[in-house]
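Hi C.,

You asked whether I'd gotten around to modeling the 147-residue construct. I have! Everything is below, sequence then structure, no commentary in between.
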Amino acid sequence: MNYNQSQTRFCFPIILTPDAIDGGYVVTFPDLPEAITQGDTIEECLTEAKDCLEESIALRIDDNLDIPEPSSINSNYWVSLSLTMELKAILYLTIKDSGLSYKELANKVKIDEKDIINSLNPNRPTSLSILEVILSQFNKRLQVNLV
């Protein structure tokens, strides 16, 4: 998989459905059926949707599930991962695509397996130096573009 187009790889469409009973909107993600939230205003929905997206991706990483490509449906609203979570998702998918276990990868890059696991944990800070070491095993490198 190519993750060079990360601006769109982790930007997911959302659907806002008016909630006739409670007011506000129900927010769903066509690509992530488990991700459902709500908000009273569109602005609140977008904030809640970002949190919901982060949780959904974190759960998929934790449960060793696929992270789908965002669909190209016609939507007025799209939500992106935070940079930190995007890096964790890229790392996760790179490792998953390689077929290596965390232990095998740790042996190859000569770091502790716990460092790899901690790098994927959404509740722990991610060391860029460890990310660079791991990604270099796959002939990838981090590049920052300010837009």
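If it helps when you're writing up: The chain is about 45% helix and 15% strand.

Thanks,
B.
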